[in-house]
Design goal:
Layout lengths: L5 H7 L2 H21 L17 H25 L4 H24 L5 H16 L8 E5 L2 E5 L8 E5 H13 L3 E2 L1 H7 L2 E4 L10 E3 L2 E3 L19 H31 L3 H5 L2 E2 L3 H10 L8 H11 L6
Parallel strand pairs: 3-8, 5-7
Antiparallel strand pairs: 1-2, 2-3, 4-5, 6-7
Helix pairs in contact: 2-5, 3-4, 4-5, 4-8, 5-7, 5-8, 8-10, 8-11
Bound molecules: zinc ion (ZN).
The site of zinc ion (ZN) has 4 residues, from α8 and α11.
């Protein structure tokens, strides 16, 4: 009897049921995210560029294919069914593409809800090589991991790399944490201090540094001193770095930690978090800025089209 592989996958697997449970938690987070929204509105911005449908399609297709490829590879490495891995990876990639558009579409960044939705996509992609769905929730330097089907509380760990970058961002620009933006974006968002302002906004693992001037995206008619269009662009980078940690670095780091004396105990509280973002840097930072894929995605999603400058 001929059967498509998708139907038994959906029927048998608890993964889809778990994703629905996770989506209920997302609704709660959406409510929190909206209630914590910074005191700005889309009409505060001079420059609002619609993103063409062709750009959205391209980004959706690329992320779905990327998810399928990584999902297939993860399944192959862990000796799991490859077609299932490809299907879950594609579903995860599709979800991340949608989440990145949520973050980018509201010009000031749609915040923590987008990041959590992105996390559900990352969990689906990771399930390509596991039997259960575990959804990560990244907030600042913390990551909670929740496996809905086991009916247990999420485990919470510190991501060391994200923690270090948040500290460095604050120290480097003599900055202060913008708590409203941090609560809203889910990434530690740092504003420059009195004397120092970086030349351009910047994203690092779990961290966003904003500039004090809005020269990159126009001046807000309401006189807001922060260019929050940058928050959307840098939020896309934070999501890309989350993806590298979840799909590339996390399992390698866990295997390394297990081999160290005392590593098992440490891994109950800590994730290293450096290999994934480091891999992205290795791939991207050798090439000139205007040819980097991750910049293309951030510019396309927040400014419509065109190559990075
Ligand atoms: Zn960028």
């Amino acid at each position: 009897m001929h059967r498509t592989f998708a139907r038994p996958l959906l029927r048998r697997s608890r993964i889809v049921a778990s994703a629905l449970t996770a989506s209920r938690a997302l609704l709660l987070i959406l409510a929190l995210s909206v209630s914590a929204a910074p005191d700005v509105h889309a009409q505060d911005y001079v420059q609002v560029v619609p993103v063409p449908g062709a750009v959205r399609t391209r980004i959706t297709v690329v992320n779905t294919l990327l998810g399928a490829t990584i999902g297939g590879a993860r399944a192959w490495i862990k000796h799991r069914p490859i077609r299932r891995g490809v299907a879950l990876g594609a579903l995860g990639g599709l979800t991340t593409a949608g989440a990145r558009q949520v973050v980018a579409t509201r010009r000031d960044g749609a915040g923590i809800f987008g990041r959590m939705l992105h996390d559900v996509g990352l969990g689906l992609g990771s399930a390509a090589s596991d039997s259960l769905l575990t959804v990560p929730f990244h907030v600042g330097p913390l990551v909670a991991r929740w496996t809905p089907s086991t009916r247990t509380w999420p485990s919470v760990r510190v991501n060391l790399t994200n923690l270090v970058y948040a500290g460095v961002a604050i120290a480097r620009i003599d900055g202060r944490v913008d708590w409203r933006s941090t609560l809203w974006s889910g990434a530690v968002t740092v504003l420059p201090g009195v004397n120092v302002s970086p030349d351009y906004p910047q994203a690092e693992p779990g961290t966003i540094s904003l500039t004090d001037v809005s020269s990159l995206c126009g001046v807000s008619p309401s006189g807001a001193s922060i260019c929050r269009v940058d928050l959307a662009h840098e939020s896309i980078h934070v999501l890309q770095l989350d993806m590298m940690h979840e799909w590339v670095g996390k399992d390698i780091e866990a295997a390394l930690l297990r081999r160290l004396p005392g590593g098992r105990g440490i891994s109950r509280w800590v994730e290293l978090g450096g290999i994934g973002p480091g891999t992205l840097a290795l791939i991207e930072f050798r090439r000139p800025y205007h040819t980097r894929w991750h910049e293309y995605e951030a510019f396309w999603l927040t400014e419509g089209a065109g190559a990075p400058p």
